[in-house]
Amino acid sequence: MSARFNMATINATAYKGMIGLEGALQNSFLTPIQKELIKIRASQINGCAFCLDMHTKDALKYGETSQRIFLLNAWRDSKELFTEEERVILMMAEEITLISQKGLTEETYQKAKELFNESQIADIIMAAVTINMWNRIAISTHLPVGN
Prior knowledge:
The protein is mostly helical. 67% of the residues lie in helices and 0% in strands.
């Protein structure tokens, strides 16, 4: 499958806006590994090979373990590998990614409120929203793995 076109050059204004969102997340409370967990999990759900390739490599650079990456799609059955905060972050990422099913449920939101303040919850939501946008661009434009 060959790339269709380069979104950054075809629609530079919108692409720069997305880069702005990514930049805003650099100042979030989320650790680099937490951000990568969100990106990997959403990309698994969406089937985005380009983003999976990029973000698993990035996670490893930040010190994430291969075991946790390998088991991320089964994190609910691998609870001992993930902290309570990470499990709530992953629940949120999944529910936001699968927005048409239920969206961010009240149950998950209440769990998040026990661990995070509103600003932190907003950061988690924006991280999930942003990777979902990138997934949709990568899949729609056939971005090749490894670029």
